[in-house]
Amino acid sequence: METEQKMERLKRLLDDWDSCERCGLCTPTGRRRHHVVFGEGSPDAHIVVIGDAPREKEDITGRPFAGRQGEVLDMFLNDNNSTRDDVFLLNIVGCRPTDEVITGKPRAPSKAELTACSPRVAAILDIVDPYVVILLGGTAFKTLALEKGGIKAVASDSQIPDVRAVTQGTFMQVERTAFATWHPNYLLANWTMDEGGCVRQSMRTWEKAFRVSDMCAELYRGITPPLRSNDD
Ligand code: URA
User: Which residues touch 207 (CB under 8 Å, ≥6 apart)?
Assistant: First the structure.
């Protein structure tokens, strides 16, 4: 798809989700939602990075990873000679899932909230059509990865295995190459630059994701992968 067509489709999708009332997060108890954090970045990105959910800063600004976790994300991008403009960033749910005004604590998105927001995630992936998806943390991993089990086993595996991120396409399920790693929030809470530590593990995963994406870009430079003819 041409860039302009992608931009137009993303704009239409954004307009559709901008005033979304598909789940209860549009009118959270005791306060109002400021923004649906749709996602942002390059429509031609080779890498889509998926977090879990907006926090307070994201809700206020309408931009993903606007807070401290975003600084960690920027560090990984920077380590790979990249910036936010080169990738596409989004969250599994577009609104801040919290009853913070009452409990003082953020919470993970519920099953109903994940289900309500899944067409947004699927449509963004369909339009951007990246070579590689990076799943940050347990919520993104559990929601999209075909592989079962917890994020811990994958994120700390020294082999850095790729997993499959599965979304519903127009006619069938679509599987994409993905890498799953620690959420920036987890890294901030467990920060260590020790060799076997979570930050180094994450660095290696991000590096591999970029390497695989670059290899795909090199392979398909400027061309759409050819369709096989019926007679070969
Ligand atoms: N900010 C986001 O937008 N997403 C996360 O997953 C964490 C912080």
Answer: 79, 80
